[in-house]
Design goal:
- This protein is α+β, with helices and mostly antiparallel strands and 69 residues long.
- The protein contains 1 helix and 5 strands, in the order βββββα.
C-alpha cells in the first residue's frame, strides 16, 4: 500500500506500509521506502523519528529470512 511521500536527506521518498500489519487502526506497522542504494525503514507511529537504513541486499536477505518463518 502506498502511504505518503516525504523528503529524507534531500531525496523524495515514497513510503509503503507493511501488508502484514495486524492493527485495527492501521497505525502499528513498519513502513519502507526504497532508493537505488538504500532501503529506509521506520515505525509508522513515529514518521518523523529515527530511520533504519540498510543496503538493498541486506533488506532482501531479511525479507527472505522473515518469509521462511
Amino acid at each position: 500500500m502506498k502511504d505518503e511521500s516525504s523528503a529524507v536527506y534531500g531525496t523524495e521518498l515514497t513510503w509503503f506500509k507493511s501488508s502484514y500489519s495486524s492493527s485495527n487502526n492501521g497505525e502499528d506497522c513498519v513502513e519502507v521506502a526504497a532508493t537505488r542504494r538504500t532501503i529506509h525503514i521506520r515505525d509508522s507511529k513515529y514518521p518523523d523519528g529515527d530511520l533504519l537504513c540498510v543496503p538493498p541486499g541486506t533488506w532482501a536477505a531479511f525479507v527472505t529470512y522473515a518469509a521462511a518463518g
